[in-house]
Amino acid sequence: MGQEAHARGGEGGRRITSGVYARTAVALGGQYRKFFVASIAAVLLLQVTIVTDTIIVGQLLGPVPMSGIRVASPIVNMLTVLAMLIGVGSSTLVSIAIGKRDAAAANRAFTLGIVLSIAIGAIFALVIAPFAEPLARLISSDGATVPYTAAFLRIVTASSPVFILASVMAMLLRADSNVRLSSVVLVVGGIANVLLDLLFMGALGMGVEGSAMATVMGMVAAVLTSLLYFRWPHRTLRLCRLRGGLLPEVVDVMKNGVPGALRMLFACIALLFLNYVVGNRVGVGGIAFLTVCGNVQLLAVAFFSAGGQAAMPIEGVLFGERDYGGLRLLVGYVFRVVLACVLVLVGVAMLFPGQIIAAFVPGGIPDGEWLLRLYSVGFLPLALNYVMTYYYNTIQRRMVSLVLTLCENLVLYLPLIWFLTNGLGLVGAVLAFVLAEFLACLVLVAMTGYLRRKLGYASLLLVPNTTRDVVFEATTPASNADASGIAHCVKEALDDCGVESLLSLRATMGVEEMVAHAASYEHNRGRDVLFDVIVSNLPDSVQVSMRDNGAPFDPLRPDVEDEGIVMMLSVASRVQHNNSLGMNLTVIEVEKGNSNK
């Protein structure tokens, strides 16, 4: 038992010593990094295309058309609100159903998400598109921007179904662990948008209408790309017939999507109010500066949003499995990744504000450099608020997400906009954003602290440290030495809690054979395979859950001939297996009172 094994990856490549195994974020962190890298690449490219779109409009058409699109953005963002409502809601239900191994529920949530995208998008198009011009007059504080705002709104809102469906499909694909295709969907849409911008506004001189057409055609390209999912051989989600009793399921989708959607909705309301107040108090120049800040924030939010959304499928599965230890480790890892990103972004804004502003407004903006530096300080609390909104929604603490979002965007932000902007002008508008985000963080800490004390939880994550039944959990590399070492630890843990010796031996055998098989499995060559092992002493059985990041392997396949696996199947009462989040999950149960099997 003196041998040592090393686990590389998350947690700084920390050492795991045989005989004193501990649960770490190594395996889960490795999978999260794959999700995050793919998500950030896609989301960042999508945000870059939006920023590039704004730069192209500003450079080719001038600041007034650019401000016109800025004025239209709260209405266009309503499409993102609807996409978040449907996409986050349905993908959360899919993830939890996968964690519970309920394929039928996962398929229904998948199908319902697609149907709702098309139906709600069609309703939005019919209600908004015909009234683009009066709506543009209503939300514009300067008549010069009205024609550009109306033209952009008319084209984009008429294509609402495809706009919503593109975003929802990307979220659903990620819920089924197809992060690569989910990212490709957004990448294709973004690249198509930029190329068509240059064609329509540059070569063809179509003006703001060209920008709107490029946006729509980019979303069409994204939807067409997402259809490749139905040819993916490893997909677990299927379209199914939706029969009767849909209202409760629609309500479930909406309830799970509400916090994320309300964040966007409240942000749209705040943006409308901010544009109105700044437009009247400062003028078009103030709106132009806020356009720069808004686009820089889009790039920052790409990291926060990708960080939170990349964790959601994993968080949903862990929550569905009641793996609270893994959930706590994952959230800590997410925070470290997002914090590193936000510090880099704030540093860039602090060092190069002049260059950033010049990319949008060639002549620069008076006092713009120090104001942009001040604005970027708000990204630090904004990152925390974003990640926690997604997290609390995933673990079904929707009211916490709702209150946080409400305070951040309306209760705190709107009064600050009014008083500070009217009192201090553009400086006040920037201060309003920074103060609202920091105050929202204080509200979050106070609210979760109260709930933690009331419900008896150990941390602000509002979940138990572990379930009462868990007697052992650890992370181990897959090697022959560690197969023996981790098995010994499992046996000791079960013996210590009074489990019959023969029964604990059968459970231990399952752990040893699975880890040993992974060490010798030919498809794992060159991989650092890690197992998260969780042992539960249930009233009627001992349950061992083993999740590994190795090559897909199903021990229940009829063609498996490995002697150790065959022996494991013979001594277990039940064995279940699935592959989700790109990881194998094998659950072994040994019934009590049946130790003579």
From TrEMBL:
Keywords: Membrane, Transmembrane, Transmembrane helix, Transport
Transmembrane segments: 35-58, 78-98, 110-131, 151-172, 184-206, 212-232, 261-278, 284-306, 327-352, 372-392, 399-420, 426-451
Gene Ontology CC: one annotated term: plasma membrane
Domain of life: Bacteria
A molecular function GO annotation: antiporter activity
Entry coiled-coil feature ranges: none
Membership in a protein family: Belongs to the multi antimicrobial extrusion (MATE) (TC 2.A.66.1) family.
Main function: Multidrug efflux pump.
Protein name: Probable multidrug resistance protein NorM
Species annotation: Denitrobacterium detoxificans
